[in-house]
Design goal:
The complex is a heterodimer of chains A (about 325) and B (about 375). Chain A contains 13 helices and 2 strands, in the order ααααβαααααβαααα. Chain A has a two-stranded antiparallel ribbon with strand order 1-2. Chain B has about 375 residues and is mostly helical. Chain B has a domain of about 250 residues: ABC transporter involved in vitamin B12 uptake, BtuC. Chain B is built from 15 helices and 4 strands. Chain B has a two-stranded antiparallel sheet. Chain B has a two-stranded antiparallel sheet with strand order 3-4. In chain B, helix 5 packs parallel to helix 7 and helix 8 packs antiparallel against helix 13. The chains are: A mainly alpha (about 325), B mainly alpha (about 375). The interface between A and B is large, with 49 and 46 residues.
Chain lengths: ~325, ~375
């Protein structure tokens, strides 16, 4: 039972931070399907940085976890500039821009990973080995029945994500910047009339989504996959988008959606293990989160409301 | 001469080839293709290889240009036929995306629809002992029906429950992937290849290893069908009421509603057509280009097709040309990497760049329009 909570949380939280990035972007009016590409590219830059640093200084890769997180955020942010420029300055179709960025991210990082492995390390490998980050347990709290699992075998990044998520919540709902950002997605003309540059707000929103997605990708690379390779593109970015739409573009319901994904995922694996079913059945339990989402959407979608100006290219002259 | 003026002259000359509005639908994609090849050439040059040789190899590998030597039973023709073979599912998939796009919908679930139709066709026809003359049409029909139902489900969910089609297609992609992987691993696994069992030759839509004139070639029957479907689709979209209504819904749902068009029915219909085309992509992929299904893997064609369709302006005929180009790069990459010593992955980088630049098409159009306007204003002030 504990493993369900432990694994569920360590899957749900990186997903959550990516979804928050998506919320920022979509609340400002920019559809963001590029989360998948941002998280992959961010993780690539983070992994590349630590592999190079470890190679040059001889420090163990495990120790460089926080360095990787910082670089992944920078990497995700830099890559998100493409989406921002394309969809804000170049007025491209935002969905297409997002899909294209995902394709480019996969191609570019796969190419660069093999190329750099061959050039710098002289190995024919398509991945950067990272290992799994250390975990910690909070002694006293871990003994509480059931809930104690929340404090057992925690990855450090889970704490970081919670802190950042809280800050992101505050920024979006309690500050002037957050209000303007949300208004840009509902009625950009009124924002403009108030003397605020809509393009700038949207640009920064997309950059924030890149930053947070990069972080999420790095967390996946350091926990589930333990390396960076093209297998990081498992569609978690799309899953995050589903979570945020399911969460009605609000941060707290989105957290619930992510937790649902996480627990349904780990719960399914747990049930399959408990019933001692052959390994083929694990696949059948893997569909749980997705079926649940579809079913819940059928009941809740009527009340779903996307930001009104979502996907609309902002044109000053248009009324 | 002021710097400003010089800049405007430079950009005017640079944009001159694409300034004719009538031809912009063709010139702008061509422009982005040229730019991305230049960008790729710079990358190849930077890693110390000759870009021209690399591009030449790309065309050689895909059967457009002759190679210096061929293995037994191979020639330029066989290379070209395998290019068409690989291209067929991409054409269907891109048409699927294009139809949905015309109705204002994004069908991200092409991969899932492909997988479902490919799997169902495999178990019903591929593992039966049916004769080719019955099996092949049956595979096509099953592909269309299975894909169409999957697509229709998405359209219905959107219409009835207001579920965003992007989310539902993503969810269905995952569900299809895992459920089918389960069935393959439980019942249809080939213990050697770790894939599903091979389908019978009779049911495959590609005739493999046909020996004529001392050559062994793969004849993709689906390719002819893809061309026919593209032309038919252009006819439906441009000349029929159905096409008109779908386009009207895609342009403005509310306006279409006020004009008395049944938006819900057209949404579902567009998704059924789109899904059916995706189903055809699935059967030409899993029972044509390949003859088995790899569990737990969604084909990347589903996502590539979104961008290929964009490159072809979501126009049925344009889609054929854009799939052709993308397939050349894909198919030629193996030969290029063996000849020029460049990593094969560069091919997908080139594809990514082409798609990226073509996404900027709207901006180029806008920019050209702006330049023309300033020119008109200047001429007026001069006279």
């Amino acid at each position: 039972m504990d493993t369900v909570i432990i694994d569920g949380l360590s899957f749900a939280l990186p997903l959550f931070i990516m979804a928050i990035g998506g919320i920022y972007s979509e609340k400002s009016g920019i559809i963001n399907l590029a989360l998948e590409g941002f998280q992959g590219f961010g993780a690539f830059i983070g992994a590349l940085a630590v592999v190079l640093i470890a190679n040059a200084s001889g420090i163990d890769i495990q120790q460089l976890f926080y360095v990787a997180l910082i670089f992944s955020m920078i990497g995700g942010m830099i890559f998100s500039i493409i989406h921002a420029v394309l969809s804000i300055k170049f007025k491209a179709n935002q969905v297409i821009s997002g899909v294209v960025i995902n394709i480019l991210a996969l191609a570019l990082t796969t190419f660069l990973t093999t190329q750099i492995n061959a050039l710098v390390f002289g190995t024919a490998s398509d991945k950067f080995q990272l290992g799994v980050s250390d975990r910690f347990t909070i002694e006293g709290l871990a003994n509480i029945p059931v809930l104690g699992a929340v404090f057992t075998n925690v990855y450090p990044f889970e704490v970081i994500i919670i802190v950042i998520a809280f800050f992101a919540w505050y920024l979006l709902y309690r500050t002037k910047f957050g209000m303007r950002l949300r208004a840009s997605g509902e009625n950009p003309h009124s924002v403009d009339a108030a003397g605020v540059n809509v393009s700038k707000i949207r640009f920064s929103a997309v950059l924030i989504s890149g930053l947070l997605s990069g972080l999420g990708g790095m967390c996946f690379a350091y926990s589930i996959s333990a390396n960076f390779s093209s297998s990081i593109y498992l569609g978690y970015g799309y899953l995050a988008i589903a979570a945020l739409i399911f969460g009605n573009w609000r941060i707290l319901p989105t957290l619930a959606a992510c937790l649902l994904f996480g627990f349904a995922r780990s719960g399914g694996a747990f049930i399959a293990q408990l019933m001692e079913l052959p390994s083929g059945f694990t696949d059948l339990f893997m569909i749980l989160p997705y079926v649940l989402t579809l079913l819940l959407l059928i009941f809740f979608s009527k009340s779903n409301s996307a930001p009104r100006a979502l996907g609309e290219i902002y044109d000053k002259g248009k009324r | 001469m002021s710097k400003d003026k010089r800049n405007s002259i430079v950009s005017k000359n640079l944009l001159r080839p694409i300034s004719n509005e009538k031809w912009q639908t063709i010139t702008i994609p061509l422009f982005s293709i040229v730019i991305s090849f230049i960008a790729a050439a710079i990358v190849i040059f930077l890693i110390g290889k000759n870009p021209f040789q690399a591009f030449y190899n790309l065309f050689q590998g895909s059967g457009i240009l002759p190679k210096p030597s061929y293995a037994g039973y191979k020639s330029m023709l066989t290379d070209f036929l395998s290019l068409l073979n690989a291209m067929t599912p991409l054409v269907f998939a891109s048409l699927a995306v294009a139809v949905a796009f015309k109705a204002g919908l994004f069908n991200i679930g092409v991969s899932g629809q492909m997988l479902v139709s490919g799997f169902i066709a495999s178990i019903i026809v591929g593992y039966s002992g049916l004769d080719a003359i019955i099996a092949k049409p049956l595979v096509l029909v099953i592909g269309i029906i299975a894909g169409g139902l999957m697509g229709g489900l998405v359209g219905w969910l959107k219409h009835r429950f207001n579920i965003n089609e992007v989310v539902s297609t993503i969810m269905l992609n995952y569900i299809a992937q895992y459920v089918i992987s389960f069935f393959i691993q439980m019942y249809y696994i080939d213990p050697v290849s770790r894939q599903s069992k091979y389908v019978s030759e009779a049911s495959r839509l590609t005739l493999v290893n046909v020996e004529t004139a001392n050559l062994k070639m793969d004849l993709p029957l689906g390719f002819i069908l893809a061309i026919i479907f593209a032309i038919f689709l252009k006819f439906v979209m441009d000349k029929t009421v159905v096409g008109y209504e779908i386009k009207a819904v895609g342009m403005n749902r509310n306006a279409a509603k006020y004009a008395g068009i049944n938006v819900g029915r057209n949404t579902v219909l567009a998704m059924v057509i789109s899904g059916g085309l995706a189903g055809l992509a699935g059967v030409t992929y899993y029972l044509g280009y390949f003859s088995s299904i790899q569990p737990k893997v969604l084909s990347s064609i589903g996502f590539d097709s979104i961008a290929v369709s964009l490159l072809g302006n979501s126009h049925p005929i344009g889609v054929i040309f854009s799939s052709f180009l993308i397939s050349i790069i894909d198919q030629g990459s193996t030969y290029m990497s063996s000849q020029a010593g460049i990593r094969q992955e560069i091919a997908s980088v080139i594809v990514g760049l082409i798609l990226l630049f073509s996404a900027c098409g709207e901006y180029l159009k806008h920019k050209v329009g702006q330049l023309k306007e300033t020119e008109v204003v200047r001429k007026e002030s001069e006279s």
